[in-house]
Structures are given as C-alpha cells and as structure tokens.
Amino acid sequence: GEFTVLEGPYARRKIFTLIGLYSPKGPEWANMGRGLIRGMLNSARGLSDKDQSEAAQTARRISGFADLDGLEFVARIDIGTDTNGDDKNEVRSAVTANHKDYAAIMGLVTATPQASATNAPQRNAYADARQHGTTPSSRPSWAQ
Fold first, then answer.
1. What is the model's pTM?
2. SS3 for 107-119, per residue?
C-alpha cells in the first residue's frame, strides 16, 4: 500500500507498506493483513473493534481494494527494514476509536471550551454521512 502523511512535520511524505493477504508461512500472516485493513476501516469510520452491530459490519464491508483508495485513518508508524537491510518507515497498525488520543487526533472534540457553546464533540464526515444514509466522497479533500 502507498500511504501519504496528511499532517505534522512529515506531511506529504509517502510510506509504502506491504499488506499480506496470503503467505506460505501460514494463515497468521494473512490474518495480520486482514487485521490491518479492518483497523484502517475502523479508524477511518470511527468504529470500535468491539462493535459488532449491523451498521458497523456494513461500514467495514468493501467490494474491492479500490474502496481503500483515499481512506483517511490514524496510523502508528514504526521503522522497519527493507530487503537490503536499510531502515524504512512502515504502517504497523491503525489507531482506532478505542485509543485515548483518537478523538483529539481526528478532530472530533473541540480544542478549547470557547470553540463551542455546548462543548459537544464534533462528528467525522463518515459518521455524519452514514447517519443521513449517504456515503462521503471517495476522494479525501486533500486529493481533490
């Protein structure tokens, strides 16, 4: 997969990570790849991994890899090694709604009490669109 950092000091940098869906080493490698994709969908759509509701299952369903194009999610980046033994950045996991910093990172809460009269958390675009029976644009705002 090709990932682009959207914010922070490394904005617009690219990270390339393999997402294994099959390995002759055994099914655990394939399950790790599926787990990463599920985590990416959970992160992008504000879902808890423990949420097994019909709406959550529908939000995790994709028809193909093209559905992942433009998906914005929070990731944990670590340093791994490539085939030559050189260091490279890798997406290790997706940070989901269960993480304590998720809401602040995704901008789902107001930064200061004065920013909102009710100080209620803001919702992400996917959650708003899902509530209204539509889906958001497949391309993120930064890519349009």
1. 0.70
2. CCCCCCHHHCCCC
Query: What distance in Å separates the CA atoms of residue 48 and residue 36, rounded to the nearest whole number?
Result: 14
Distance CA 126, CA 45 (A): 6
> Could you read off the pLDDT of 12-38 as tens digits, one per residue?
999 998 888 888 888 888 899 999 999
Distance CA 125, CA 130 (A): 8
> Which residue is listed with tokens 């940098």?
13
Q: In the structure encoding, which two tokens stand for residue 34, read together? A: 């599926």
pLDDT on residue 102 = 86
Q: Find out whether 16 and 2 touch, Cβ atoms under 8 Å.
A: yes
* Burial group, residue 110, by CB count within 10 angstroms (0-12, 13-18, 19+): middle
Rounded to whole angstroms, the Cα distance separating 59 from 40 reads 11
Give the H or E element holding residue 33: helix 27-45
CA-closest candidate to residue 142, choices 31, 12, 47, 38: 12
Query: What value does the CA radius of gyration of the chain take, rounded to a whole number of Å?
Result: 17
